[in-house]
């Protein structure tokens, strides 16, 4: 009986093990149940990175589709689910699925591929425009048009979807809304050409003679839009300008400024409406004028710098007078013109000195303004090295600007008076014999200038020494200027001093007491100085001796001493032998 019970128990255990083994795969299969959802657009193309939700009661599972449009959910429990495709808050597609019954489900998301082309009134592309689609439910996409005016949106939910509805299509350029339209998107592909009220302006700024004004800046300003362009040839081009018919745009204010020496100056101001593309000339009140500069005698003055100023801008233009004393100016705003330049100040400068000024208005093209200028007084007094006035000297001033020369001769007080325009001159001084003794560049600004010439009546010291630098106390020095002997003096060991009237080349002869020429030198002196004449072959020894003669004498003396000493030694030797 016990054996029978043991067998029965063993059989039951075996059956239990078999049952558990048989049931294990089924439970594993339940734990590993999965579902694959593929999302396609209406044209059958897979959609990437689209959120797929799997919903069961309060449980929500999410997965983003891969590049082939698949979203895979694993470890699902058995039951009914809702598979839903979402884009932001918009449901693009949904379907009820059964797990584990459904293994692969395809859902078609109701999205459209939208292509838009933005064009202006002339049919040209509008690049850089901000294009947006905004649904009534709040879904929005936006992008910027490329250089061809094209904009593309890949995922635009159908208008028929819940919470979507019509789209507001808007185009903005430079912050200004230039186009708006309501559209419905219910097709796989949606394309549209947008013609925005944008126009092209070609503006040329000209003067009163119709000539383009170079180096300008033109600005357009409306209620909500502004733009600015620069040009070197007088013509500026504005592309894709919002029409004045647009709300918030209206009339444009136009300002043109000309680049001058002192900065930008306003030359045109006006208001215009633009509703279509056009080319337009803007006539500015810019005139040609001439400024003529004359001296006290009515003679033209050249090389004078004329500077213009008005109420708009100071020192905005300058020019230099020619040989006729005329300086020409172009593009000068009229005093009572469109921009009202006001009173002009016309100043005349010479070497940075103000020599004349006129204030007046310029009322018409071609006016000539005359400025009378006066020369100022300047006096130059010449003094020699010792401060004594130099009379009878010619003083010549050469204008550094024009090369014009003014000559005057000094009076008894050494003074020469001039009537000149102040500035830079080259000063040349000639002595009564006509020789140039002094030259320099200077700036004259009126008054009296004392000019001390170290080159006139200056002292010269001549020192004559032997080869060892000892001053000679014998011999004679003769100094010549050209063929004229200026001085003959016996040397006493003291320097020779003389006064020279002007720079010169001197010949100095050194003679022996017997009148024999020992040495001759030529020197050039142009101011006070000391010159040393060194007699290299001579030495002062009681008298003036040649070093060669002295050496011979010393040699002869030494030889004599040696011979005498030798003779004495010989005589002593003979006496000892005797």
Can you characterise this structure?
With 578 residues, the chain is mainly beta. It has 7 domains: 1-29; 32-108, Immunoglobulin-like; 111-195, Immunoglobulins (Immunoglobulin-like); 198-283, Sandwich (Immunoglobulin-like); 286-372, Immunoglobulin-like (Sandwich); 376-452, Immunoglobulin-like (Sandwich), CATH 2.60.40.10; 458-547, Immunoglobulin-like. It is elongated. Residues 12-30 have low confidence and may be disordered.
Average of per-residue pLDDT values: 89
Give helix % range.
10-25%
Strand fraction equals: over 45%
Task: Note the total helix count.
Answer: 2
| Largest sheet properties | 4 strands, antiparallel
Rg measurement, Å: 56 Å
* Structural class by sheet pairing and helices: mainly beta
In total, how many domains does the architecture comprise?
Answer: 7
Rough shape? elongated
CATH class of the largest domain, named: Mainly Beta
CATH architecture of the largest domain: Sandwich
> What is the fold-level CATH name, i.e. the topology of the largest domain?
Immunoglobulin-like
Task: Give keywords.
578 residues; single chain; mainly beta; 53% strand; Immunoglobulin-like; 2 helices; 4-stranded antiparallel sheet; elongated; 7 domains; 44 strands
List the topology elements:
Layout: H1 2-31, E1 33-40, E2 51-56, E3 59-64, E4 70-76, E5 79-87, E6 90-99, E7 104-108, E8 111-119, E9 130-135, E10 140-144, E11 150-157, E12 167-173, E13 176-183, E14 189-195, E15 198-206, E16 216-221, E17 226-231, E18 235-242, E19 252-260, E20 263-272, E21 278-283, E22 286-294, E23 305-309, E24 317-320, E25 326-333, E26 344-350, E27 353-360, E28 367-372, E29 376-383, E30 394-399, E31 405-409, E32 415-420, E33 423-430, E34 436-444, E35 447-452, E36 458-466, E37 476-481, E38 484-490, E39 496-500, E40 504-511, E41 517-525, E42 529-535, E43 538-541, E44 543-546, H2 547-577
């Amino acid at each position: 009986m016990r054996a029978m019970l043991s067998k029965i128990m063993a059989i039951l255990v075996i059956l239990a093990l078999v049952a558990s083994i048989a049931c294990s795969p089924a439970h594993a299969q339940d734990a590993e149940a999965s579902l694959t959802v593929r999302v396609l657009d209406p044209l059958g193309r897979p959609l990437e990175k689209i959120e797929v939700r799997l919903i069961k009661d309060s449980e929500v599972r999410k997965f983003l589709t891969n590049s082939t449009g698949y979203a895979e959910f694993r470890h699902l429990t058995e039951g009914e689910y809702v598979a839903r495709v979402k884009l932001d808050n918009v449901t693009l597609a949904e379907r009820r699925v059964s797990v584990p019954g459904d293994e692969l489900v395809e859902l078609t998301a109701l999205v459209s591929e939208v292509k838009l082309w933005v064009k202006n009134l002339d049919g040209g592309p509008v690049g850089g425009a901000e294009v947006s689609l905004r649904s009534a439910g709040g879904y929005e996409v936006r992008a910027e048009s490329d250089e061809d005016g094209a904009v593309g949106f890949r995922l635009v939910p159908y208008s028929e979807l819940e919470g979507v509805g019509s789209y507001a299509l808007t185009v903005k350029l430079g912050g200004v809304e230039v186009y708006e339209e309501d559209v419905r998107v219910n097709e796989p592909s949606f394309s549209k050409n947008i013609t925005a009220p944008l126009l092209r302006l070609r503006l040329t700024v000209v003067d009163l003679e119709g000539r383009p004004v170079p180096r300008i800046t033109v600005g357009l300003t409306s209620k909500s839009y502004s733009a600015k362009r620069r040009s070197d040839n007088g013509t500026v081009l504005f592309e894709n300008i919002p029409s004045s018919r647009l709300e918030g745009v209206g009339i444009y204010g136009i300002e043109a400024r000309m680049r001058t020496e002192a900065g930008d100056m306003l030359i045109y101001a006006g208001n215009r409406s633009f509703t279509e593309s056009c080319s337009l000339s803007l006539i500015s009140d810019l005139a040609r004028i001439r400024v003529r500069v004359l001296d006290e005698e009515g003679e033209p003055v050249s090389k004078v710098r004329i500077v213009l100023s008005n109420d708009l801008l100071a020192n905005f233009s300058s020019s230099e007078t020619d040989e006729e004393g005329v300086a020409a100016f172009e593009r000068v705003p009229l005093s009572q013109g469109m921009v009202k330049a006001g009173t002009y100040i016309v100043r005349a400068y010479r070497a940075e000195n103000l020599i004349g000024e006129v204030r007046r208005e310029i009322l018409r093209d071609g006016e000539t303004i005359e400025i009378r200028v006066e020369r100022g007084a300047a006096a130059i007094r010449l003094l020699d090295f010792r401060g004594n006035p130099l009379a009878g000297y010619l003083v010549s001033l050469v204008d550094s600007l024009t090369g014009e020369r003014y000559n005057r001769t000094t009076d008894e007080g050494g003074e020469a008076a001039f009537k000149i325009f102040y500035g830079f001159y080259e000063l040349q001084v000639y002595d009564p014999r006509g020789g140039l003794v002094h030259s320099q560049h200077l700036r004259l600004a009126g008054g009296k200038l004392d000019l001390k010439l170290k080159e006139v009546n200056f002292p010269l010291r001549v020192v004559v020494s032997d080869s060892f630098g000892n001053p000679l106390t014998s011999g004679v020095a003769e100094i010549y200027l050209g063929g004229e002997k200026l001085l003959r003096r016996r040397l006493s060991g003291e320097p020779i001093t003389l006064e020279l009237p002007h720079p010169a080349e001197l010949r100095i002869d050194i003679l022996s007491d017997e009148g024999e020429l020992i040495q001759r030198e030529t020197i050039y002196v142009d101011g006070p100085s000391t010159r040393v004449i060194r007699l290299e072959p001579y030495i002062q020894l009681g008298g003036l001796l040649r070093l060669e003669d002295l050496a011979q004498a010393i040699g002869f003396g030494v030889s004599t001493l040696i011979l005498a000493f030798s003779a004495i030694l010989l005589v002593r030797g003979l006496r000892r032998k005797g």
